[in-house]
Amino acid sequence: MSIDLKKEIEHILGENQLKIEEPLSCHTTFKMGGKADYFAVPQSLEEIVELIKFCNQRQVPFYILGNGSNVLVGDKGFRGVIIQIGKGMDKVEFGETTGEQTKVLAGAGVSLAKMAKMIASKGLTGFEFASGIPGTLGGAITMNAGAYGGEIKDCILWAKIIDKQGQIHIIEKEDLDLGYRKSVIQKEGYIVVEAEFIFSMGVKEEIEKKMTDLNRQRVEKQPLNYPSAGSTFKRPEGFFAGKLIMDAGLAGYRVGDIMVSTKHCGFVVNVGAGTAKDARQLIEDVSRIVYEKFQVKLEPEVRYLGEF
Fold first, then answer.
1. Known catalytic residue: 151?
2. pLDDT of residue 15
3. What is the dihedral of CA 245, 222, 107, 89, to 10 degrees?
4. How confident is the model over 239-252, as pLDDT tens digits?
5. Per-residue pLDDT, 2
6. How far apart are CA 176 and CA 98, in angstroms?
7. Contact assessment for residue 234 and residue 180, using Cβ atoms and an 8 Å cutoff
8. What is the pLDDT of residues 175-228, one digit of tens each?
9. CA distance 114 to 111
10. What angle do CA 66, 72, 76 make, to 5 degrees?
11. Which residue is catalytic, options 181, 196, 228, 287?
């Protein structure tokens, strides 16, 4: 850890926006992983751009983190700068209404649950699917997050991104290449900072009832009582990952305190003092066994970060 590097990052950011040797287990939904050398929390687009340019110039590795809901951090942590986009980048603004449709501008740091509630409160429909997804908007756009028949691509108009050189661009919907858990943002390593959406007017009571029903289903079907990174595997074409894992006899399969959920086999959960090493081993074991039994390859949806 360089004192000079610390001072330079602090010069870019405001007061109390940089932590040293920060445990990433406090910033991921899996509740495990080592420490980050630097944990930066920029409060504006300008700070993010300047910090990225600085990291590039100094050749300091960095990673953009939202709610940490789709990440497995290695036990040895991350050598470099974690840039968390959250508070300060979580605005939701309602724009012009044309006919029965209203545009909504949102920052990458807003939680999907908060955004869904705000949209519903205006009687707008089309974002109910996102109300139970445990992440922030930036990551959701990057992965084209979806649930219960809805996806980000159904309602987005454009995204404002920062490229690897720290330049800002606006990418229209047709150029985002949004597909199942993929986008041009993910492919090119862009960073989402803002996006505009469009929603139609609906009946507020019906919208809120649908959100309540979807969240009830989530509670009933998903192991929310244990830390996890959400759905562990991508859905293989023509199959469901959870069913393949269950049919392979892997419900309850454990490596240390990491376990395949018995409630929903598509989830890998931390039932105690789980380690990233054990989690990665279990994920590899499940992939191998499912392939041996069914010749179907399971690809992790969870991202590996840092040193294992």
1. no
2. 77
3. -100
4. 999 999 999 999 99
5. 67
6. 24
7. yes
8. 999 999 899 999 999 999 999 999 999 999 999 999 999 999 999 999 999 999
9. 5
10. 110
11. 181
Read off the tokens for 252: 């309850």
Catalytic residue among 228, 231, 261, 287: 231
Is residue 25 annotated as part of the catalytic site, yes or no?
A: no
Per-residue pLDDT tens digits for 262-299: 999 999 999 999 999 999 999 999 999 999 999 999 99
Annotated catalytic residue 231: yes
Catalytically annotated residue among 10, 218, 301, 303: 301
Distance CA 232, CA 242 (A): 9
Describe the crossing of helices 204-221 and 112-121 by its angle, rounded to 10 degrees. Answer: 150
Tokens in use for 220?
């009933």
**What is the Cα–Cα distance from 24 to 207, expressed in whole angstroms?**
36
